[in-house]
Amino acid sequence: MAAYVSVGNIHDLFLSGQGYRGHDSWSSGFTFRANSFKDLSWSSRVSKALKAERCGCYSRGVSTFNESSKINTSIRAVSSSTKYYDFTVIGSGVAGLRYALEVAKQGTVAVITKDEPHESNTNYAQGGVSAVLCPLDSVESHMQDTMVAGAHLCDEETVRVVCTEGPERIRELIAMGASFDHGEDGNLHLAREGGHSHHRIVHAADMTGREIERALLEAVLNDPNISVFKHHFAIDLLTSQDGLDTVCHGVDTLNIKTNEVVRFISKVTLLASGGAGHIYPSTTNPLVATGDGMAMAHRAQAVISNMEFVQFHPTALADEGLPIKPQTARENAFLITEAVRGDGGILYNLAMERFMPVYDERAELAPRDVVARSIDDQLKKRKEKYVLLDISHKPREKILAHFPNIASECLKHGLDITRQPIPVVPAAHYMCGGVRAGLQGETNVIGLFVAGEVACTGLHGANRLASNSLLEALVFARRAVQPSTELMKSTRLDLTASEKWTRPVVATARSPGEDVISKILALTREVRRELQGVMWKYVGIVRSTTRLNTAERKIAELEAKWETFLFEHGWEQTVVALEACEMRNLFCCAKLVVSSALARHESRGLHYTTDFPFVEESKRIPTIILPSSPTTASWSSRQLQNISSTSLI
């Protein structure tokens, strides 16, 4: 892999907004930079991000598309509209909703969500939220657990902020109506999960995310200053260039129900779009998790960090081991929460041999990366397809009280978890990398803030500690409010800005009969499965340089094949369709993961490579992918819109 790596200070990057150019990696023009861990201040502020009334723009070097030009009889423009808001929020999980509720006190808010508002990674989070709420616990202990789990790649200042502010964020949720489990003494029931030294997991049985989402969504829908736009797929961010600074002005979306492009112009944009689990064939993420936010931000010149650290949850339900198999394949793997092991669950291979103590002295309570690799090793050595997680030695009433959702799902398939072990297998679960953010969720793109899984704040390091994800989302959603509000108040909304960018054109299939669009979408589905297969086979739990290079080559060939077919059949730079746009985002994220993995010559946390099997102290630095020229990039790595030569005012 050709990549430029140097040692320096990230302050220069953030304060100037200038990308450091180097050799291109793939067709995307990725540029890498390593930074001294001691010199790196992850949370260094983007001081220019609060400048008001940015102006100036430039041509990004992609061909202008004229909507009136004839592409193909099966592709046509559909009426477009533009909406203006003070704040645009992309994503309706815990980060997006919590932020929206706060900034709505200062202005109008559009919440854009790809599916139904509740369909987010938050809704599928079972375990809970970690916070120091017990007198026997401490912020220092929570910090230490987080740093150890993160293989000491975490940013200490970020960890301290999150662990310190966490308890207050929990209290705010309770005040808003979120209902969590309480013990017999009337206090919150605090569970313990892998990697935690204390009981500190606030939960609502095994459906915590669903309860938090319910409370937040109810408040959002009752807020007159917030408009929720469901079934709106975010296509690309709207950006311009002001000297060396990239400025975000909103986002183009595709209304999936009406096939209409809707443009949102806003003073501030929060990206809270979740992760990219569907770059792999088996993931606990819902179907909406196709890496849209990470890919959009990369195309918009945002700095990306630590994408090699993909967390595979050790225990997703293995359908092959169920007495009654599901009749159809699941869209996403069913998660068996970490709390099952925290409550005393034991892992066995199919010979009923307990194996975790062989791998780690913490046994089943080891961090997720350790447990996932241990299971992977057992499966490969024994040529088996799943292992067993047994909680049946615990009292029946306790199991059913703590894990009602898991018990119900397993019972549908003939398995009683109070009497039988649960078949489990690792599945892609969480992206520890993402859009690099400071302590207030700011990015190097002016007007663009990030929170939740799409962000890389420095909290998780090389591996996320269980139940720290909802906590991080809550903390950073609140921390982004003040700078966002200040920027909103000092910025003038340009009502003439909408036509500064070319409009995406919707691809529509003619009916009846087989036409070009249906062929393109059929190929897209096939290519999606192939990409997922490549990622699982070559960029999975255990990696090697040879396998990563093979993945790089195969993905490049696959993308070239797909794009060639599209553009030879009348597709154009600005043409959009849901599945095609998701595919370009999946390609973009997959390349970011592979390139980042090739750049890390050690094994740390979630990134384990047989060629560099040990931790190297000299390499305890984040992986940074800097903005670079999009002119030679593939379709997946450059923005759709071409900006006009007229300056934004």
Automatic annotation (TrEMBL):
Keyword Flavoprotein: yes
Compartments in which it is found: Plastid, Chloroplast
Keyword set includes Phosphoprotein: no
FAD-dependent oxidoreductase 2 FAD-binding domain ranges (all copies): 87-470
Annotated EC: 1.4.3.16
Pfam families given in the database record: FAD_binding_2 (PF00890), Succ_DH_flav_C (PF02910)
Chief localization: plastid
GO biological process, one term: NAD+ biosynthetic process
GO molecular function: L-aspartate oxidase activity
Name of the protein: L-aspartate oxidase
Species this chain originates from: Brassica oleracea var. oleracea
UniProt lineage: Eukaryota, Viridiplantae, Streptophyta, Embryophyta, Tracheophyta
